[in-house]
């Protein structure tokens, strides 16, 4: 059961939201964490992020200070110019991109700053780390636009 599980995944993720919520609240966290590396690898074998890029098209990562320093240097820009050009401060006080899709998203869904991308981008969708159980609201949100997150949660439901 691999790629066929992804059929109509957007609709199914919404339908299964309550089940995911119960799974994350009631299942032994250590059991989930133990299963994540294998499920994460399996999900990436079945989902090609370059055919989706929903994360880059609709949401912004946080740009932390080290990200700003690294990316602005990579682009040959002063940090202040990089911030003024691409970023704004959100309601939580974090730097995020000014517009969607991400200004670094290329037409073929690749990233023009991939080697230097923000740590949030490198870690997304957090399906191989404890964020999946520690930040359950984020995991549930991610399941509705990220097929990787959906896949991992579905596999956890199946057991």
Give your account of this protein's structure.
This protein has a two-stranded antiparallel ribbon. It has 159 residues and is mainly alpha-helical. It folds into two domains: 88 residues, no CATH class; 57 residues, no CATH class. The protein is 55% helix and 4% strand. A hairpin with a 5-residue loop joins β1 and β2. It is elongated. The two termini are 13 Å apart.
Strand order of the largest sheet: 1-2
How many individual helices?
Answer: 10
Strand content: under 5%
SSE ordering: HHHHHHEEHHHH
- Poorly predicted parts: none
Shape: elongated
Total strand count, please?
Answer: 2
- Structural class computed from helices and strand pairing: mainly alpha
Q: What Rg, in angstroms, do the CA atoms define?
A: 17 Å
Percent of residues in helical segments? 55-70%
What's the arrangement of secondary structure elements?
Layout: H1 9-15, H2 17-26, H3 29-46, H4 54-58, H5 65-75, H6 79-86, E1 87-89, E2 95-97, H7 119-123, H8 131-134, H9 136-143, H10 147-158
Antiparallel strand pairs: 1-2
Q: What is the compact description of this entry?
A:
55% of the residues lie in helices and 4% in strands. It is mainly α and 159 residues long. The longest helix is centred in the first third of the chain and has 18 residues, at 29-46.
Name a few traits of the molecule.
mainly alpha; 2 domains; two-stranded antiparallel sheet; 2 strands; 55% helix; 4% strand
């Amino acid at each position: 059961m691999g790629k066929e599980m992804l059929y109509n995944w957007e609709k199914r993720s919404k339908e299964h939201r309550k089940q995911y919520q119960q799974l994350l609240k009631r299942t032994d966290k250590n059991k989930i964490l133990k299963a994540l590396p294998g499920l994460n690898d399996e999900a990436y074998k079945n989902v090609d992020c370059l055919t989706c890029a929903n994360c880059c098209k609709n949401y912004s990562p946080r740009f932390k200070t080290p990200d700003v320093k690294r990316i602005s240097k990579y682009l040959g820009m002063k940090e202040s110019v990089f911030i003024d050009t691409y970023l704004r401060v959100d309601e939580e006080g974090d730097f995020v991109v000014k517009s969607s899709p991400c200004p670094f998203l290329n037409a073929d869904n690749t990233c023009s700053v991939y080697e230097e991308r923000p740590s949030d981008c490198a870690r997304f969708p957090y399906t191989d780390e404890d964020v999946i159980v520690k930040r359950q609201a984020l995991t549930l949100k991610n399941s509705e636009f990220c097929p990787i997150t959906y896949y991992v949660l579905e596999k956890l439901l199946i057991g």
